[in-house]
Amino acid sequence: MHGNFPRAKRSLGQNFLVDPNIQRRIAEAIRPGPDDEVVEIGPGQGALTQHLAGTVRRLVLVELDDELARRLARQFEDRPDVEVVHADVLDVPLERISADPAGLKVIGNIPYNITTPILFALLERRPRPREIVLMVQREVADRILAPPGSKTFGALAIGVQTVADVERVMNVGKKAFRPVPDVESAVIRVVPHAPPRLTRDEEAALRALTRAAFGQRRKQFQRILRDAYRLTHEDVSRLEGETGLDLQARPETFAPERFVELARVLRERR
Ligand code: SAM
User: Partner of 125 at 20 to 30 A CA spacing, among 150, 162, 194, 201?
Assistant: First the structure.
């Protein structure tokens, strides 16, 4: 579907992937099988779509751009296994796409300005899809994959790593896109824990803790807990005794599991 095409819209994050080898490798990263239901976010001119259509039981394409959605609908009108949803992906919950949302695989070379909302929509709501492959800005991939103690470690790493296994599939350079974007890219694979390891309440408590912790970077954890949770010095000492954690350290040095543990203990205290 290349060529003869109106100008890419910056507002919709349109940078089309033109390298056929990379297109194929990303499509394969979702490990498409004949029983799969797959949702593609932002199919655009079909860069990934062309490698997915026909390999899975059902393919749902969610595209916001009027002209692109129309083109895709026309292209696949004779294919009962491919469906075009002309909508903003953030307005389409997974349960509207499938009777078995927990079985869905989600793939997309997505607009970078809505990466975090898309990730949150996929990971904070339940049920979560079975598997997610996304092209994101490389810096965002680094933040999602960051180990504790590194400069980029923070709320995003903890939010994703505590609910899913995540890995980098590959880095992708700017030249693979038209128009050539300003930033480097990377493809990540996110496989939500199934069944989830935390309850919804535990996840909510963890989110509140991470928000408090990283809203005030460079502070010791004990200080944050005293401010945000109104703990006294004695409370902090008791908490250290209970958890074995050194709360004089800064939040960015704590592994995601430690955050989970701390959130759990704080919740039980109340
Ligand atoms: N998948 C294509 C590719 O790899 O060449 C297009 C990628 S382009 C980076 C992002 C695509 O997402 C565009 O087709 C754009 O129109 C679409 N898009 C932007 N915002 C969207 C939204 N909120 N919901 C669904 N699609 C959106």
Answer: 150
* Ligand 1 and 13: CB distance under 6 A: yes
Range of the domain at 252: 200-269
- Same domain, yes or no, for 184 and 204? no
Q: What atom of ligand 1 comes closest to residue 49's alpha carbon?
A: 1
DSSP string computed for 79-110: -TTEEEEES-GGG--HHHH-S-GGG-EEEEE-
Cβ of 46 closer than 6 Å to ligand 1, yes or no, is no
Task: Say if residue 84 is in the same domain as residue 176.
Answer: yes
Query: What's this model's pTM, rounded to 2 decimal places?
Result: 0.94
Going from the Cα of 41 to the center of ligand 1, the distance in angstroms, rounded, reads 7
pLDDT of residue 269: 77
Of 5, 15, 16, the one to substitute when testing ligand 1's pocket (max ligand atoms within 8 A of C-beta) is: 16
Same domain, 142 and 253: no
**Protein residue with least CA distance to atom 18, ligand 1:** 42
Domain-terminating residue out of 161, 192, 223: 192
pLDDT, tens digit (0-9, with 9 covering 90-100), for 35-67? 999 999 999 999 999 999 999 999 999 999 999
Atom of ligand 1 nearest to the CA of 40: 1
Based on the fold, state whether residues 46 and 157 are members of the same structural domain.
yes
pLDDT tens digits, 103-156: 999 999 999 999 999 999 999 989 999 999 999 999 999 999 999 999 999 999
